[in-house]
Amino acid sequence: MSSRADILARVKTNKPKLLNIPNIALDVFEDGRDLLKEFTVKVETAGGQVFETQSKDLVVGEVQKLFPEAKVNFSTLENTEDFNTINLEAIKTPHDLEDLDVLIVESNVGVAENGAIWLNDALLPMRILPFITKHLVVILKKDDLVTFMHQAYQKLNGEDTGFGVFLSGPSKTADIEQSLVIGAHGALSLSVFLV
Amino acid sequence: MSHSKAATIFNKDEKKVNWHDKALWFVRHKRDKSVHSVEGWENLRNLGQGIKAHMLSNLDNYLIQFEEKALKNGVQVHWAKDGDEHNKIVHSILKEHNAKKVVKSKSMLTEECHLNPFLEADGIEVIDTDLGERIVQLAKEPPSHIVLPAIHKTKEEVDELFQEHLGTKPCGGDPQYLTGEARKHLREKFVNADAAITGVNFAIADTGGFVVCTNEGNADMGAHLAPVHIACMGIEKIIPKQEHLGVFLRLLGRSATGQHITTYSSHFRKPREGAKMHIVIVDNGRTEQLSRPDFRASLQCIRCGACMNTCPIYRRSGGHSYDATIPGPIGSILSPGKDLKKHSSLPFASTLCGSCSDVCPVKIDIHAQLYKWRQIITKEMKQPFVKKVSMEMMGKMFAKPSQFEKVGMVARWSLRNLPKSVINSKPNVWGRERDLPKGPKESFDEWYKNRKKNE
Amino acid sequence: MKIGLFIPCYINQLYPQVGKATLELLEKLDVEVVYPLGQTCCGQPMANSGYERESLGACNNFVEKFKGFDYIVTPSGSCAYHVKKHFDIIPQTAEVIKLRKNVYELCDFILNVLKVKNVGARFPHKIGIHKSCHGLRGLRLGSCSEKVTEEYSYIGELLKEVSGAEIIELSRQDECCGFGGTFAVTEEAISVKMGKDRIQDHLDNGAEVITATDTSCLMHLEGLVTRNNQPLKILHIAEILNSVN
């Protein structure tokens, strides 16, 4: 018997009687907190920064002020050729992105309860981008904020993406004596611009 | 070595015990702060428990559904009965791609299967990329905690280890500097890797996708750079629907470290263009555990490590004292199912205080299972003669009130009249560091009878 | 209302003063208490050591002595919990079912059955409450720090009404003391360390007295306090609630 058949047969024999699947009712979680305030606090708790801005078009200018030293930049926004120092078409392997200083991308879901932001294949020309960049900037519409993860998944339902990530703050570790250090393997900083 | 022996050795250095206890209590404290801010936390735990219990009751169908969807997504799916088969499958995938350099993010399953030595024996370099795991890998030690693998190491020890292996400068254990150096060292490994191995936190039956959670971004750095991604999962990692992630991702990070969610919750569904993705589904004793009604709930575990952080014994004995892939309370109910003889001391490494069960995000009745394993172990494993006989004697004594009275009288007399040197002589382990009560002249029984007489 | 008083084996033999205080306290509260002679033990020492099968005689003797009472009250959360949780190893007759339902830890009984909060005690001291685990997480005699529930504590509610009593706050409000039955001996190093750490927490926060719903925890703590000459008095909650000066 193949291992597949063997494992499935053993599960079938050994599993308990079918139990009902619980229904997720959301009303018990309602805490009446302010979406925007909560999201901001949670991004900051996770080590990121939140900025409010009037328009998407202003973000590049603000980012240039935030990272004046940056040499290698890329943005997925339209009309940012002046900002972009690399051409993704010319990039053969993801490894060539190793020197990327600043990346600007857009997100379509933000979660207030934990400051998580959704990025997926449709929003990322290459999956490695938000991880390999030194500084990550994400633009999010205030209207795309939801309270809990439950609503976030309701929004993602039916989205057929090959890869997606909920990202909360810059990369971090506390593996040396529980001392929090920002900047492990992924981005060293996260800035969220709310439009 | 039994847990108590290993714990005794660990306790020879009381300062280190205090340090270890405080480090983990700090994590438990952060967990408390974060879960107490969640409205409906206990409802969330109920949901986590309910979904997992349902999953186990329909696991074969969900596995089939998961495989079907994963195949449609262009992912190759493999099945392994045990650790050995798992290792061979991973090895053959690596061979097929001529992969010599592998980066691996945290996966307790690959620890359980001893994948690293298996691959290393064939000259394949396997680098653990989680910082804590890299630390213990350099130290040639197993992880002592499933979420904080190097929690037993002081920063000074890490400093020395990095000086020796990574050529860092002495820094007095500066975590910022050491982490920075590890980032550089591992960045080089990521960029040059031929293949990436990750674990799986959740595998979703209705999409064929799987989720990997890290704080460091090491799973993503590996998987998105290397041409091959191999994800290894136990059969119990399945959840029915993507929307159930809403429950589990709310529970996991908070329970593990007090974070409201881990930094990266990466949802893999299809390989990126030009790359390959493999999933290895492993049994290795899980179906057997599923067959045990008293213990199958242990398969609900989402590996948050909260039971370790809260356990007063774990905090004071260190993860290595359990001599098992998964240490602490959850390990003590999983491990006996795999090797009862080797792990027979673990269910006794508990006061049955129940803190583990109350902290568990999926409500596994850990302490009740410890109690049940004890009943099995005393039947199936040879017990110390003294323990066996004393239990039988106690059983008989408590069944017969007259005998209980006589024994009690002798015991009280001895405690009252024998010199302390005799009472606290070697066979009395209690007396090494603790006094026994002074035996009262009258038991409550006798006092009550006298009072009745005088009424 | 007919109440059977259950005095656990080690209290009977080693801490009769706790039994006396319990009985006197209940009598003060004007309830009819009977202490059935010939009682021994709930069976827990064997069962928790993995020898549940050796505890059958103890269970049967317990049922024999306590059937027929409306309530069974005991100054031990741990023993009450054992009867409730683990008496499933004997046939579940109507008697056994009733008995398991009606066994109460002392504070729980006073507060929730007798509905008395102020027992008229006076005890002018700084008191640290050790929340014994089986009472806390088994019988739910109070909220525990792991769960997100409303805060409550039966022992705390009764102590609050004791004249002169001052309850101190602990750094770790409900960590185990490390007694754990035979654990105290088989895992001696950890058991002792846990006990020492608990005592230090009480000392650091200014306790003069440590109290609890379980004498087993207290015996372990007292053993350490006595050996190490520490300035703490160890008293069962019944002794405090029965105290008038």
Automatic annotation (TrEMBL), chain A:
Which lineage do the record's taxonomy fields give for this organism? Bacteria, Pseudomonadati, Bacteroidota, Flavobacteriia, Flavobacteriales
The UniProt entry, under PANTHER family, shows: LACTATE UTILIZATION PROTEIN C
Gene3D superfamilies cross-referenced by the UniProt entry: NagB/RpiA/CoA transferase-like (3.40.50.10420)
Matching InterPro entries: FTHF_cligase-like_sf, LUD_dom, NagB/RpiA_transferase-like
Q: What is the protein named? A: LUD domain-containing protein
State the organism of origin: Mariniflexile gromovii
Q: Where is the LUD domain?
A: 48-195
TrEMBL record, chain B:
User: InterPro entries of this UniProt entry?
Assistant: 4Fe4S_Fe-S-bd (IPR017896), 4Fe4S_Fe_S_CS (IPR017900), FTHF_cligase-like_sf (IPR024185), Helical_ferredxn (IPR009051), LUD_dom (IPR003741), LutB/LldF (IPR004452), NagB/RpiA_transferase-like (IPR037171)
Q: What is the lineage of its organism?
A: Bacteria, Pseudomonadati, Bacteroidota, Flavobacteriia, Flavobacteriales
Q: What is the protein name for this chain?
A: Lactate utilization protein
Pfam families found in the cross-reference section: Fer4_8, LUD_dom
Keyword tags: 4Fe-4S, Electron transport, Iron, Iron-sulfur, Metal-binding, Repeat, Transport
Q: Which organism is it from?
A: Mariniflexile gromovii
Q: Where is the composition biased (Basic and acidic residues)?
A: 431-455
Entry-linked Gene3D superfamilies: Alpha-helical ferredoxin, NagB/RpiA/CoA transferase-like
Top-level taxon of origin? Bacteria
SUPFAM superfamilies on file: 4Fe-4S ferredoxins, NagB/RpiA/CoA transferase-like
4Fe-4S ferredoxin-type domain: residues covered: 291-312
Q: Which intervals of the chain are annotated as region Disordered? A: 428-455
TrEMBL record, chain C:
Cysteine-rich domain location: 4-83, 129-221
Q: What is this protein called?
A: (Fe-S)-binding protein
Which organism is this protein's natural source? Mariniflexile gromovii
The highest taxon in the source lineage is Bacteria
Lineage from the top down? Bacteria, Pseudomonadati, Bacteroidota, Flavobacteriia, Flavobacteriales
Q: Name one Pfam family in it.
A: CCG
